[in-house]
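Ops channel
N.P.: pipeline sanity check, posting one input/output pair.
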């Protein structure tokens, strides 16, 4: 695989987890999915998807059998999983849909898929619990990341100040041009605090979803926040982008697992 960058990792997370954000490089898929598509929900050959997951796992530190996936619905359902759920989405049928996972079980690779939406990974090294969040603009507008932090506290006794977070590659403000419904939703959620993430150009707006999710993490009490600056819509040689490619694409995986 040479110098191909398969995964972007964290520079701040302490030991105890395997994690990474996939790129579109280093896989075996062909056609519109070339080359790294780890998402079985796309119309890719399943044997290619499994091999892509294996290659991704070889770099990050999990196996395809460890992975847990779901059908994401742009809502705020948070799924608590255990070791018994390993393989759901790839080898077992999905039974619950949602946009975030939490667990305190080892060797369970929580996996969310994006192609411009914001992936966020969470880790409490004190209580040994993790979370993975898919936060599109609709999920951001209903604060799914803050609700996931609260659910980790409820289920596992996590304290937000102990949680490490990393906001992964997604569409950045430079490319996320919207109509008024998106800034209106952010203002309804955050009030005046949303203004620093919104820029108006004529009758369009540019919205910084990374900054808004950072504000939501801070509001939830999380202060260990890493932001990966890559823009999926700017860097289509490296990332899949729904805005640039529509449905003619694969997906990016954000994965975290307690080791």
């Amino acid at each position: 695989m040479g110098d191909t960058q398969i995964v972007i990792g964290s520079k701040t997370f302490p030991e105890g987890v395997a994690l990474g954000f996939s790129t579109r490089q280093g896989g075996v898929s062909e056609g519109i999915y070339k080359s790294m598509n780890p998402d079985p929900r796309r119309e890719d050959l399943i044997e290619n998807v499994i091999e892509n997951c294996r290659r991704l796992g070889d770099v990050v530190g999990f196996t395809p059998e460890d992975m847990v996936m779901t059908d994401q619905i742009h809502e705020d359902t948070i799924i608590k999983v255990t070791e018994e759920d390993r393989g759901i989405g790839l080898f077992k049928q999905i039974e619950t849909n949602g946009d975030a996972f939490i667990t305190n079980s080892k060797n369970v690779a929580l996996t969310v898929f994006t192609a411009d939406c914001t992936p966020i990974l969470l880790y409490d090294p004190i209580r040994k619990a993790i979370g993975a969040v898919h936060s599109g603009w609709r999920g951001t507008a209903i604060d799914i990341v803050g609700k996931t932090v609260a659910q980790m506290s409820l289920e596992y006794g996590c304290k937000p100040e102990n949680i490490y977070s990393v906001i992964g590659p997604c569409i950045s403000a430079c490319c996320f041009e919207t109509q008024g419904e998106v800034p209106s939703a952010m203002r309804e959620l955050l009030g005046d605090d949303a203004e620093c993430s919104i820029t108006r150009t004529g009758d369009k707006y540019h919205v910084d979803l990374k900054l808004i999710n950072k504000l939501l993490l801070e509001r939830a009490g999380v202060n260990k926040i890493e932001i990966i600056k890559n823009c999926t819509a700017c860097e289509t040689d490296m990332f899949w982008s729904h805005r640039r490619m529509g449905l003619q694409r694969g997906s990016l995986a954000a994965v975290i697992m307690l080791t």
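N.P.: looks fine end to end. The mean pLDDT is 97.
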